[in-house]
Design brief:
The chain has 287 residues and is an alpha/beta fold. The protein is built from seven helices and five strands; from the N terminus they run ααβαβαβαββαα. The protein starts with a helix and ends with a helix.
């Protein structure tokens, strides 16, 4: 059984850890609020872009565009959006578990985040490109990722391009999600917008032509999709880290309470023993 000195040492050590996790929790909470705002702010813009593309789809033969052509999948390219740092609970574990499901003989990977890069090196999978992004990336910084996969797809080096990232739902709920990026699937309106209309941009005229606008919109659409997924992944990362650090702080607090109770019991037992020894000695002297 540990003595009181060992218990004091453990309590002090756990208290220091608790202070550290509390500080990390506050930092993650600050970053989380900004990341969540950025992730949610782009969704209305994505809805408007989708409406424009649905309208263009009605006015052109979209199947003729090379980015929408479906072909037999012989080689697949997967973009994995992970974190650079750990201490985010099971976020990366769940994400990389999904990445491991792909056939390594037919799959090449494009990654952003040190955790995904380490996973590919450890499992000896094919790494085609590694992009480093800031903690709060801009659309310009994610554009090279889209350009890289578009070039691979158009060159026939990849028949399908997917993105594996952590979708942000709320602060305590983040879900690993796999989405097909290329070929681009037919566009459709959400149910709440689709009622009573086939062309959501009816009355608008596209210049110089609907075909030219579609050619310009599709690459930009892909760039924006990747940017939005990166923002979702960042919001998920900071949310998961904040929750993990809060749980660690709460566990440290509870552990300190348990050890303090044990320490007090040992001190009480020690004092009682000393009193008994004094009383016994006095009785022996009295006799």
């Amino acid at each position: 059984m540990a003595n009181t000195q060992d218990l004091r040492r453990r309590i002090k050590s756990i208290r220091n850890i608790g202070q550290l996790t509390k500080a990390m929790q506050m930092v993650a909470a600050s970053k989380m609020r900004r990341a969540q705002q950025h992730a949610l702010a782009g969704r209305p813009y994505a809805e408007v872009m989708n409406k424009v593309l649905v309208s263009l789809q009605h006015r052109t033969d979209a199947k003729l565009h090379p980015l929408l052509q479906v072909r037999e999948v012989k080689k697949e390219l997967v973009i994995v959006i992970s974190t650079d740092k750990g201490l985010a609970g099971a976020l990366n574990t769940n994400l990389l578990r999904e990445a491991a499901r792909f056939d390594p003989a037919k799959t090449g990977y494009v990654v952003t985040g040190r955790k995904a890069r380490q996973f590919l090196a450890r499992t000896r999978r094919q790494l085609l490109a590694d992009f480093e992004l800031k903690d709060a990336p801009t659309a310009t910084e994610t554009k090279p990722i889209a350009n890289f996969v578009i070039e691979r797809f158009l060159a026939g080096e990849a028949d399908k391009v997917s993105v594996l990232y952590t979708h942000f739902i709320n602060t305590i709920n983040q879900r690993p999600t796999l989405r097909t990026l290329l070929p681009i699937s037919p566009f459709d309106l959400p149910e709440r917008q689709a009622a009573g209309t086939s062309d959501p941009m009816l009355g608008y005229i596209f210049e110089p032509s609907a075909e030219r606008v579609l050619d310009a919109m599709l690459p930009y659409y892909l760039q924006y999709q990747i940017f939005q997924m990166v923002l979702d992944a960042r919001a998920s990362e900071h949310s998961a880290r904040m929750v993990a650090m809060k749980n660690a702080t709460d566990n440290a607090t509870q552990f300190i309470k348990d050890l303090t109770l044990e320490y007090n019991k040992m001190r009480q037992a020690s004092i009682t023993t000393e009193l008994l020894e004094i009383a016994t000695a006095q009785m022996a002297l009295g006799q």
